[in-house]
Design a protein that fits this description.
Elements lengths: L1 H20 L2 E9 L9 E4 L5 E3 L5 E6 L5 E6 L6 E5 L6 E2 L2 E3 L5 E2 L2 E2 L11 E3 L15 H5 L5 E2 L9 E2 L7 E5 L2 E2 L22 E7 L13 E7 L6 E9 L5 E12 L3 E11 L1 H4 L5 E20 L2 E26 L4 E30 L2 E28 L11 H4 E31 L2 E26 L2 E3 L10 E25 L3 E14 L4 E14 L5 E12 L3 H4 E5 L5 E5 L6 E16 L2 E17 L2 E4 L2 E4 L5 E14 L7 E14 L7 E3 L7 E11 L2 E13 L3 E4 L3 E8 L3 E14 L15 E9 L7 E8 L5 E7 L4 E9 L1
Parallel strand pairs: 1-7, 1-8, 14-17
Antiparallel strand pairs: 1-4, 2-3, 2-5, 5-6, 9-10, 11-16, 12-13, 14-15, 16-17, 18-19, 18-49, 19-20, 20-21, 21-22, 22-23, 23-24, 24-25, 25-26, 26-27, 26-28, 28-29, 29-30, 30-31, 31-34, 32-33, 34-35, 35-38, 36-37, 38-39, 39-40, 39-41, 41-42, 42-45, 43-44, 45-46, 46-49, 47-48
């Protein structure tokens, strides 16, 4: 019995030893071409199911049976696959691998690797703006509007709508701090330049919803911009010449950057003169819009663990408009109408802003950072116009039919009008905040922040409109002379906001795959409304081991639209019948609950990378403050009187449609509804103002075969019509829809010199890196899209919507020099 026991123990010991010897460990680190650790690299023993994924430090570990020959396969989306052959595997080994990007150099244009996206934040390539045909003169927003879920129906504006939200629902951050835009702007003609200078931009991230708790209280989207920190002298200058017959300088920009061990700076200036573009509008007028913008971003490191950043911006937008004559035909084939008006008077507007921001960072350790942020924003806006017009509205039959219409029946309305405004607005915002970041473990990162903000607004409005129709002043009472509309305001607002957030990110692996969980909460308080907001947000990303090319994600959260000054304004009648603006201190924040389910699927066609992104979303809306939209001017009701929803599907196919280039096509389908219930009025159920039923956008690159210096870039947009309301009646009156917005811009770019050209090694040209020439064809098919409507009222109070058209086809010549 004893011998049997000893034999059993000996057998068990030998079996354990053999089992231990049956597996060996293969481990190592994976890095990219720049030496940085690569996460999410799939490491697999070829022709087996044995595999693992690298962690944040690029480390992997496998247990493998020993053999005469083992082949390890390393793969990651956006990088060339790598194989390592181990001829004889008998003991534990370390195998380190460096993986190269799958990008192809196209002189100054390179194709970016397709990266994994486990959250709702998507990375954009700002370098494309150098070759992007853009009537606004080059802006980050012109690239954003080609992404799924984003729409714009005005090429004169950099404003955009995301998944049915208003322009005011989009957050924009530069270097971690929120930036603002003027409040009085009524049309795209007045807008000028976006705050973000693309010449200074290094990284761009964008989320169409379900974003993290560290971002502020807005309901739709966030655009997060990081500016450059040059390591050596660099710069660029460009000029654009626009016009169909008379060529005029339309845009000009330049920047210079430099860097040393302790100090870096990048400074840029932009100029835009869009007279040629605006004179392409329907009608004769004199446009003198001048927009100038100066920005600088500086960093200084007084010690290895300390860094001080400064961002400064000065912007001056001056808009002068002198209308002369307008004649346009509109309506249906059976009910065509002609509108003809002669103008007198002029408009002068001024929008001047100054912005300064400081950030002090301290690296507590290799895993922790603490920062202090402060910024100040001041806007001085003036809107002044006195415009008169004598107009005639006629029936217009088909060509040659005018004589068939009796003279008495031809004229619909003969009238004159006078529009007057003297509006002034001053806005001042001051902000200070403290933030921190700690890497708790290799798979957990904690972020937090707390801030305080003061806001002061001074608003003075004095505007009115009188209208005369065939000798009768409208509205016609038979007893007195009245104006058809007026608006007055003399308001001051001073308030404070407090906010704080904390969020944590976890990464963990299971047998099924890699999970990325980001969860956080945000709280804020506004002294004016005495409202406290509590906003939990979370997102979950999953990369299954069964299919490394697939990424799944889900995001949800409670998002608020905290009112700024414009949302508070509500119009009331005083005892004399004048319309006066009062501020509603009972107005609460609008609320939206996001549900987003998305996926990315990466695949190859031949040797080319592609990615198909699909997202389903649903936004439950409450406490809605309804608004009407006219061009880019938003007028809020000033009360929480509606609820509703927005639901849709966004799809984007991204990849190398042409080898060596990146292109994409986006499709968005959307349905929205808001139910407005106001005291003493009938309940109304209508679509949201910024919710087109469909949106298709396209960005496409190509080059001449065998000659990659010559590039073609195409940007196309097709957006469904938007609902339009009658002025001063809101959704209580009849609603219309604008026609679909259709536009294609085409750009040809040629690299005149650069790289290893012999020309660049001679004399004066040795100072330059490259020289580019460009020719853009804006609005290739010469489609006059409708931006808004001018409303005509006859003596019987019948109203006619006369469309205001956007720009037609024009040519733009560009010259860009890099050094």
């Amino acid at each position: 019995m004893r011998n049997r026991t000893l034999a059993s123990l000996l057998f068990l010991w030998m079996a354990m030893g053999l089992n231990a010897q049956g597996k060996v460990k293969v481990s190592g680190n994976v890095r990219d071409a720049d030496g940085n650790p690569l996460e999410l690299v799939a490491v697999q023993v070829k022709h087996t199911l044995i595999g693992a994924m690298t962690d944040e430090k690029g480390f992997y570990s496998l247990s493998v049976s020993p053999g005469d020959s083992v082949v390890l396969l390393f793969s990651c989306l956006g990088y060339n696959k790598a194989e390592r052959v181990i001829p004889r595997l008998t003991q534990d080994m370390r195998v380190n691998v460096q993986m190269n990007y799958t990008s192809l150099e196209l002189n100054e244009v390179s194709v970016t690797a397709i990266r994994r996206q486990t959250t709702t934040m998507e990375t954009l390539d700002a370098g494309r703006l150098k070759i992007l045909p853009d009537p606004s003169g080059g802006s980050i927003e012109s690239l954003v509007v080609t992404y799924a879920g984003v729409s714009s129906n005005n090429e004169l504006s950099t404003q955009y709508s995301v998944r049915g939200g208003s322009f005011d629902e989009n957050l924009v951050y530069v270097n971690g701090m929120e930036v603002f835009r003027p409040l009085l702007i009524r049309s795209g003609q007045q807008e000028g330049l976006s705050f973000v200078n693309p010449n200074l931009t290094e990284n761009v991230q964008f989320s169409a919803g379900g974003f993290d708790a560290r971002y502020g209280d807005k309901m739709s989207s966030v655009l997060d911009i990081s500016y450059k920190k040059p390591t050596k002298l660099e710069g660029s200058a460009s000029v654009g010449v626009l016009g169909s017959s008379n060529l005029n300088i339309s845009t000009a920009s330049a920047y210079v950057g430099s860097g040393s061990k302790k100090f870096t700076q990048v400074t840029g200036i932009r100029y835009k003169m869009s007279s040629s573009l605006l004179n392409n509008l329907v009608g004769r007028a004199e446009y003198v819009p001048r927009f100038v913008d100066l920005q600088t971003f500086m960093t200084y490191k007084p010690a290895p663990k300390w860094e001080l950043n400064f961002l400064g911006n000065l912007s001056s937008n001056h808009y002068k408009y002198v209308p002369i004559e307008l004649e346009t035909t509109f309506g249906t084939v059976k009910n065509k109408q002609k509108f003809h008006v002669f103008f007198d008077g002029r408009e002068r507007d001024k929008f001047e802003t100054i912005y300064g921001a400081l950030t002090l960072k301290h690296q507590l350790s290799t895993k922790s950072e603490l920062g202090l942020q402060a910024f100040a924003f001041k806007s001085n806006e003036e809107e002044s116009y006195d415009l008169t017009g004598n107009y005639r509205l006629d029936k217009a039959g088909e060509e040659g039919d005018d004589e068939k219409i009796a003279e008495g029946e031809k004229s619909i309305a003969l009238a004159s009008y006078h529009e007057h405004a003297r509006n002034r607005l001053q806005a001042t915002v001051g902000h200070i905040g403290l933030y921190g970041m700690t890497q708790l473990t290799a798979h957990q990162k904690l972020k937090w922040g707390v801030n305080a903000q003061i806001e002061r607004i001074i608003d003075k409005i004095s505007e009115w409109e009188s209208r005369d129709s065939s000798g009768y002043s409208l509205p016609q009472t038979g007893k007195e002379v009245n104006v058809i509309a007026n608006l007055f305001s003399d308001n001051k607002l001073s308030s404070k906001r407090l906010a704080a957030y904390v969020q944590d990110m976890f990464k963990f692996r299971t047998e099924q795959g890699l999970f990325t969980l980001v969860g956080g909460i945000r709280g804020s308080y506004w002294t004016y409304s005495k409202e406290f907001l509590f906003s939990p947000r979370a997102s979950l990303g999953f990369i299954p081991n069964a299919n490394q090319d697939l990424t799944l994600r889900f995001a949800t959260g409670l998002y608020y639209q905290s009112p700024f000054y414009k949302e508070l304004r509500t119009e009331v009648k005083d005892k004399d019948g004048n319309t006066v603006i009062r501020l509603n201190d009972q107005l609460k924040s609008q609320r939206s609950i996001h549900f987003i389910l998305g996926s990315d699927y990466g695949f190859k066609v031949g040797s080319r990378n592609f990615k198909l992104t699909t997202e389903l979303y649903y936004k439950s809306l409450s406490n809605i403050n309804p608004y009407t939209l006219d061009n880019v001017k938003i007028r809020y009701y000033g009360e929480n009187c509606a609820k509703g929803y927005i639901a849709g599907l966004d799809m984007k196919l991204f990849g190398e449609f042409v080898p060596g280039t990146d292109s994409w096509i986006s499709l968005s389908l959307m349905k929205s509804r808001q139910t407005i219930e106001r005291s003493g009025r009938e309940t109304v159920s209508v679509s949201m103002p910024n919710s087109p039923a469909y949106n298709i956008s396209l960005y496409f690159q190509d080059y001449f075969p065998g000659y990659r210096r010559a590039m073609l870039n195409l940007r196309g947009v097709l957006t469904g019509g938007l609902p339009v309301t009658v002025p001063r009646r809101g959704y209580d009156g009849s609603n219309y829809k604008t026609p679909p917005y259709r536009r294609i811009d085409l750009g040809f770019t040629y690299q005149l010199a650069g790289g290893e050209d012999a020309l660049m090694e001679r004399g004066f040209f040795r100072n330059f890196k490259s020289i580019w020439l460009g020719l853009d064809v804006f609005n290739v098919f010469d489609i006059y899209n409708t931006s808004s409507y001018y409303w005509i009222t006859d003596v019987y109070s019948h109203q006619y919507a006369v469309p205001n058209y956007l720009t037609g086809r024009q040519l733009n010549f560009r010259l860009t020099v890099d050094f």
